[in-house]
Amino acid sequence: MLKVSSSFSAANSAPAGATRSTAAASTALLSKTVATSRTRLRLPCSGPRTTMLASALSTSTSAPPGTSTTVLVTPSSSTAAGPAPSSVTYKYHQLEIPQTPPGIALIDITPQIRELVAQAGLQEGCVHVLSRHTTTALTINENETRLLDDVRQFLSRLAPAGDPYLHNDLHLRPAPDNWPGGWAAWAAQEPRNAHSHLLSMLLGNTLTVPVTEGKLALGTWQSVLLVELDGPRPRTVGVQLVGHAAQ
User: Fold this and answer.
1) Suppose 246 and one of 115, 121, 167, 185 were both cysteines; which one would form an S-S bond, judging by CB atoms 3.0 to 4.6 Å apart?
2) Which of 72, 23, 85 is nearest to 239 (CA)?
3) Where in the sequence is the signal peptide annotated (predicted)?
4) Whole-angstrom distance, CA of residue 50 vs CA of residue 201
5) Minimal CA–CA distance to 58: which of 67, 48, 45, 71?
């Protein structure tokens, strides 16, 4: 059971003998405090793109043995002017992964996100992360090699690639309008990957991580993981920083 603690006592927790007026005043104070806290924590969640200050490069160590996955941080393509000087910042960046490992793989993108937070000087706010594909997902968990193998095996059993799926009946599906080369060309490149779509929907494509005192508020063993469900492919992940930056 989830327990919520507070530095204020509600009316029904007043000591024996307390008057009803004292309990009512305590309840009113608690309500006012909660309302004030909500107001202070309210932050806007979208805004114009801005250009990244620098680039970062690292190699994931969570890919299957014998493979490596490079994650690049590239500037936003937007050239629009940013917002007027303010204590609230909005910055959008895109992580680029030139090639993911085959099949199902988990890629740790936490170092790149931390670097973006540091570059932006974000002190209090949040980071929104978006997997920009229908056959990838995002999750927060421990980046431990044997656990990642367990996850890959579990997902493979949950939605086996070899099971029959309607999405994989390419002969019953029309090609997109004006596809170069017509239906045959489209069918030749279209993967039979219904299982990847299903797993993506189960795991989810977005997550938000709070930032406080300039750091991601992740637990000791938590990492932000991109889950590749239909590799190998080039992939992109959107990262938007929202909050108060150091002046």
Assistant:
1) 121
2) 72
3) none
4) 30
5) 71
DSSP H stretches of helix in the chain: 20-41, 110-120, 145-158, 182-189, 194-203
pTM confidence score? 0.69
Helix axes 145-158, 194-203, angle to 10 degrees: 120
Question: How far, in Å, are 35, 82, 110 from residue 246 at the CA level?
Answer: 26, 17, 21
Residue 204: which of 153, 100, 134, 142 has the closest Cα?
A: 134
Q: Which of 212, 211, 210, 239 is nearest to 226 (CA)?
A: 239
| Residue 240: strand pairing partners | 92, 128
The one-letter amino acid code at 12 reads N
CA–CA–CA angle 202, 106, 150 (5° rounding) = 80
Say which residue the tokens 């059971």 belong to: 1
Q: 220 near 131, Cβ under 8 Å?
A: no
pLDDT in tens, 34-66: 344 443 434 444 343 333 333 334 444 455 665
What is the distance between the alpha carbons of residues 139 and 208, in angstroms, rounded to a whole number?
A: 10
Write out pLDDT tens, residues 165-215: 999 999 999 999 999 999 999 999 999 999 999 999 999 999 999 999 999
Residue with tokens 């002190």: 123
* Tokens, residue 165: 């799926």
- Tell me, what's the pLDDT at 140? 98
Peptide bond into 232 cis (omega under 30): yes
Closest by CA position to 149, among listed 96, 103, 197: 103
